[in-house]
Amino acid sequence: TRPLIIDTDPGIDDAAAIALLVDDPSVDIKLIASVSGNVGVGHTTNNALKLLTFLGRRIPVARGAAAPLMRANRFATEAHGKSGMGAFVFPEPDQSLLTESNAIMEERRVLMDSEEPVSILTLGPLTNIALLLATFPEVKEHIDRIVMMGGSTGRGNIGVYGEFNISVDPEAAKMVFRSGLPITMVGLDIGRKAHLVVEDLDALEASGEVGGMIGALFRSYDGGHIEEGIKMYDPSAALALVEPDLFELRPAFVDVEISSPLTMGATVVDYDGIINDAKNTDVCVDVNVDRFRKTFVDRVCAVRRK
Ligand code: BDR
Ligand code: CA
């Protein structure tokens, strides 16, 4: 089993990504770090605690950055609701899961204490990871790989070319892409292709309490506009970590636009060496949708509350 840190802004699809991994025998989730993103960090922290309390999994939760490095917060309440995961009534969160120190200190601790290299799965803006790498560069040696939901090889969602996680904190994302660490990028185009349909939610809801919770959250996703397919952004990154055979990867040099108002936050994906920089990222370029859907439903249906 590989040690794993999940850095996240739950968020409906973040919650699903975490549910996909809690019982995976190939990873050992050492820490869930919250970050400001879909909603403020008070909400994302509380949502992580609520989810783990509901699942009955004792994974420490550390509260992370409250705002991007240089810019004002931009939330995604139209997709995730006012509190980020409000469409399901969770039990009161078990506050004993919350760590005393903040996400950056806790991420450092997990990394430095680990005998094996640790994987990091990022499902939100990259603020915590940029701060971590800048403050404690010695942690780099302990990081196996960053698997990231972020960016796009084509069009964006909060800009024409800007994807949310990258565009909310483009400077942080740029620091991470330039860190020299191995990165797997799972972008918007993959999450759009790897969609569930409403019948998949029916199957989840028929399976029991955990499937019921994930189904209820997704019914309210995107303001309830789910008839045309339910986008699987963060779950794609989670499965790219543990089921890489579902995806096709292609190496590229990736960098982030931080100065043009028109293309702010765009991930520039150079497969062909046009920019003449060394390749720094394995970019996810395709997903087997049928196998993805089946894997998602089977995994979530098998999770039981503890
Ligand atoms: C990303 O933005 C968030 O709203 C989702 O949780 C996902 O991480 C997609 O752009
Ligand atoms: Ca997210």
User: Structural class given helices, strands, pairing?
Assistant: alpha/beta
pLDDT under 50 segments (min length 5)?
A: none
Strand content: 15-25%
How far is it from the N-terminal to the C-terminal residue, by CA? 21 Å
Major beta sheet, specifics? 9 strands, mixed
Order of adjacent strands in the largest pleated sheet: 3-2-1-4-5-6-9-7-8
Q: H/E element string?
A: EHEHEHHEHEHHEHHHHEEEH
* Strands, count: 9
Share of helix, binned: 25-40%
**Rg for CA atoms:** 18 Å
Bound molecules: beta-D-ribofuranose, calcium ion
Total count of helical runs of at least 4 residues? 12
Mean pLDDT: 98
Shape: globular
Protein name: Ribonucleoside hydrolase RihC
InterPro entries: Inosine/uridine_hydrolase_dom, IUNH, Ribo_hydro-like
Pfam families: IU_nuc_hydro
Keywords: Glycosidase, Hydrolase
Can you give a write-up of this model?
The protein has 306 residues and is of the alpha/beta class. It is 37% helix and 18% strand. The protein contains twelve helices and nine strands. A nine-stranded mixed sheet has the order 3-2-1-4-5-6-9-7-8, sandwiched between helices. α5 crosses α7. The longest helix is centred in the first third of the chain and has 15 residues. The protein starts with a strand and ends with a helix. The model has no long low-confidence stretch (mean pLDDT 98). The structure holds beta-D-ribofuranose (BDR) and calcium ion. The site of calcium ion (CA) has 8 residues, from loops. Keywords: Glycosidase, Hydrolase. It comes from Bifidobacterium aemilianum. InterPro entries: Inosine/uridine_hydrolase_dom, IUNH, Ribo_hydro-like. One of its GO terms (molecular function) is purine nucleosidase activity. This is Ribonucleoside hydrolase RihC.
